[in-house]
């Protein structure tokens, strides 16, 4: 007896595989104490599969939102670092314009808009001018003046 096989289309093959899978789920879900028909059991298995898919989609969306939040936070941190660097540059430029302060090495460090000044100055007035210069730079939240008065400054 010669049996001729006709090739199955990919969609026909997928339907066959899906049907066999659903039937296997239905049969696996069979329980002797279960009074539901095979069709009801298959419907239940399909509904559970749909719920699992919905749960997976919600988890993926939550993960995508968390990734988006992390990206936004990283961008905000990078912007803050850039702002701090800009503040440091502006404070340093302002100090360099003051004749008495420009001859002195004053370290300027900025973190989260808080400027810290370190180094020697010649007088209390010079220290106060340095603080005022830093406070007048846009973006400065506060100034920590750790300048020391030194006649050698």
What does this structure look like?
The chain has 153 residues and is of the alpha+beta class. It has one domain (35-149): Histidine-containing Protein, Chain: A (2-Layer Sandwich). The protein has 4 helices and 3 strands; from the N terminus they run H-H-H-E-E-H-E. It has helices spanning 10-28, 38-97, 99-102, 124-135; strands at residues 107-111, 114-121, 142-149. A 3-stranded mixed beta sheet has the order 1-2-3. The longest helix is centred in the middle third of the chain and has 60 residues, at 38-97. The protein is rod-shaped.
CATH fold description: Histidine-containing Protein, Chain: A
Number of helices: 4
For the secondary structure, the number of strands is 3
CATH level-two architecture:
2-Layer Sandwich
The helicity comes to: 55-70%
According to CATH, what is the class? Alpha Beta
Rg from Cα: 36 Å
Q: Please state the structural category.
A: alpha+beta
Shape: rod-shaped
Order of helices and strands: HHHEEHE
Spatial strand arrangement across the major sheet: 1-2-3
Estimated share of beta-strand residues? 5-15%
Oligomer: single chain
**Overall pLDDT score:** 80
* N-to-C CA distance: 109 Å
**Largest sheet geometry:** 3 strands, mixed
Query: pLDDT under 50 segments (min length 5)?
Result: none
The total tally of domains equals 1
């Amino acid at each position: 007896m010669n049996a001729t096989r006709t090739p199955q289309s990919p969609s026909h093959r997928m339907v066959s595989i899906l049907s066999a899978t659903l039937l296997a789920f239905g049969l696996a879900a069979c329980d002797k104490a279960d009074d539901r028909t095979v069709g009801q059991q298959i419907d239940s298995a399909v509904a559970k599969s749909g719920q699992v898919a919905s749960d997976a989609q919600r988890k993926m969306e939550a993960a995508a939102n968390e990734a988006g939040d992390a990206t936004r936070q990283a961008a905000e941190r990078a912007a803050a670092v850039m702002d701090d660097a800009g503040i440091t540059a502006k404070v340093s430029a302002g100090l360099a314009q003051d004749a008495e302060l420009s001859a002195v090495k004053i370290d300027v460090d900025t973190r989260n808009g808080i400027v810290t000044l370190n180094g020697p100055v010649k007088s209390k007035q010079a220290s106060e001018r340095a603080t005022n210069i830093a406070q007048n730079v846009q973006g400065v939240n506060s100034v920590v003046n750790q300048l020391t008065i030194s006649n050698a400054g």
